[in-house]
Protein: Piwi domain-containing protein
Organism: Rotaria sordida
Amino acid sequence: MRWYLQNLVQKFNAKLGGVNGMVSLARALTSSSTKDDIFMFFGADVTHTTCSRDKPSIAAVIGSVDSTSTQYASRVGEQYPARGKISLEIIKDLYQMSTDLLKLFAQRNGCFPNKIVFYRDGVDDGHFQKVLDHEIRALQNACKAFYMNNPLPKITFIIVKKRHNTRFFVRDPNTGNFNNVQPGTIVDTDIVHPQGFYFYLNSHAAIQGTSRPILYHVLYDDIGFSSDEIQSLTYYLCHSDVRCTKAVSIPAPVHYAHLAAYQSRDADSYDNDRRSTMGGDFDDDDDLIQNMGSITLQEVETRLIQLDPSIQDTM
């Protein structure tokens, strides 16, 4: 009962604008940050229902809006695929969404962030170039349009991959049994891609079963983080989720984006039992594969979801 009440009070406090805990940027960042730096954290995710125009994909972008990086606001939109094709993973309206969140940050803090860290969930390796061509460029263009003559922020863009088959274990020398690794375990050598900025982070303690580490790929790094800095920052952000007293498996901005996408879909009267990633207008797997490769960004129609003003700028 105690833990239940504690969790409930945490959620109440967060909903009312309170702060449950803060990430110590000074401890995480040693060389890439100064006391004058103003950070803004983004998280983004796209969830898919069925492959039809009746059930569009939901794209959610989350941004921190206070100096402590504990309060977030969301922007959510629908993405309708062309008839007979599946939707893309790319967020088409990222320019508008990120512009709105940048404006809200400036309104609440009276200044512009000079460093932006963007965590993007759910992108396959085959979409990395599309993310570079569209999403990172959209974020850069949003900054150019909003900052006008002010110095532009430096951006670091990180892909968060949950779906993989890699697991880590540690052997107990006394019993010979294999157990989960400790929270905070990082693997960034030997098994990661030698030509990219990759690392595995197991940030949480599994309640039961095998813990699943998260694979992070730093796709774009204008800030110039060292490996230790970006790994520490990511680990610290896993502790800042207002819904939990312990570290979660992914950074708070990504978790919030995932929740915003699912909750917005439910709020728009989508059926909970239609949460498969495939189905709808396709007759067989060959059609699915053919259409998966042929869809373009121009064929995707979008609509931003307008939430009630009382909750639009809160989480």
